[in-house]
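Journal club side-thread
Mid-discussion, someone asked how the predicted structure for our own chain would compare to the paper's figures. Pasting it here so we can look after the session.
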Amino acid sequence: MLGSRAPVAAPALRQPSPPGQPGPSAAPESQPQHLTLLGGFRLHSGDDPVRLAPGPQRLVALLALHDTTLRRGRVAGMLWGESTEARAHGSLRSTLWKLQAARPGVVWIQGDNLELSENVEVDLRHASRLARSLVTGRFDEETTGALLEPGFCSELLPGWFDEWVLVERERHRQMCLHALESLCEHLTGAGRYGAAMLAGLAAVGMEPLRESAHRALIRVHLAEGNAGEAIRRYRLYEGIAARDLGVGPSPMMRSLLRGIATV
């Protein structure tokens, strides 16, 4: 992390500096700012929505996804890679100016380095911390409750097709799926079948073709003594897999119902 940092210049200075010219320092926002990336891009200052043009949105999202300091050259290349180097840097300067005019204090600049302000809370970062806790076997009530909230499973920046978004979208999806399955198994072992069912259904909702999520749900039904529900879940997945994948359930899945029914 850099040492002394100064935020982007604020429009409260009456006249923002022209594009390409650095503005004077400004005090950071006193209100906490909340950035939502799951389910779509939304920025709030306190309770008030902040409207940003597409260019500043992409810059803020890029810095939020990387959670570290980035060099200007790298940012320009990732956002405007189809342009020449000179035009890409010019676009970045213009975008930074528009951002400072719309909402100061969102991005910190020091020399050639850019970083999302520490004052901006990012929902994806919070969700990632929770998921990592479960994947590594650390369970607590706060984490359990948070992961069962519908927003946790939301797609990262739907409708955005930049390569740097696609990579992080898949990372988030896989981490969420593993976290939800781990939570389902943990809650089943603890006898909390209702909450376990919610976690398993959330995993299946994210990826209906994922056999391991269906297996987790079958284990919940069996632990409750609901053999009929376990068979129904098996048949449901069997139909989905045959229709969309052209395969049948794995031996691992069939073994779950051994002794209950012929499958």
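Post-session note: The mean pLDDT is 87.
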